Amino acid sequence: MNTPKHKKHTHGFSLIEVMVVLAIIGILASIGWPIYQEQTRKNQRAEAVTMASMLRLEMERCASNNNGLYAINCPNLATAAVLPAITAKYDPTGTRGNIYNANIAVTPDGSGYTITIADIIGNDDDCQTFTLDNFGAKGFTQAPGHNSSVARCWGSN
């Protein structure tokens, strides 16, 4: 009795199939990468806004303990309370490093202050620095040639 010969089955992918898959991955990556970068910038802006708001609360707390004046030691007290909390929230493993540099300048007479949060990575040309003063006035700086707004930097845009 003759048994039919079975065709030899080969396993694997042809070169064309591999190239099609790589092309699809490339298209998806080219669409996804800018979206990922913008979302990262939004998250970093949210961190800067949170940092500035928390520093403002600490400065007001310090002023309430100093007869309404922002004492010379208020910035140190504020950053000592806020910066570890920000690190614990946004970088719990301690591997990311600092994204922002916080500075608080008190007026010479102690009646006011300005908080400046600067982007030390340099990847956000629309919102390079965030400023907040004792009156709650929000500000920002941007790279030349960019068109941003307070709502874009401080809001959820």
Report how far the terminal alpha carbons are from each other. Answer: 78 Å
Please describe the biggest sheet, giving its number of strands, its sense, and whether it closes into a barrel.
Answer: 4 strands, antiparallel
Class by SSE composition: alpha+beta
User: What percentage of the residues does DSSP assign to strands (E)?
Assistant: 5-15%
What is the succession of H and E elements? HHEEEEH
Text of the CATH class: Alpha Beta
The residue ranges in which pLDDT falls below 50 over 5 or more consecutive positions are none
Set down the secondary structure blueprint.
Elements: H1 15-64, H2 74-90, E1 100-106, E2 113-119, E3 129-133, E4 138-141, H3 150-154
Antiparallel strand pairs: 1-2, 2-3, 3-4
Walk me through what this model shows.
By secondary structure, this protein is of the alpha+beta class. It has one domain (15-154): 2-Layer Sandwich (Pantoate--beta-alanine Ligase, Chain: A,domain 2). It has helices spanning 15-64, 74-90, 150-154, and strands at residues 100-106, 113-119, 129-133, 138-141. It has a four-stranded antiparallel beta sheet with strand order 1-2-3-4. A hairpin with a 6-residue loop joins β1 (100-106) and β2. α1 (15-64) runs antiparallel to α2. It is elongated, with a radius of gyration of 26 Å.
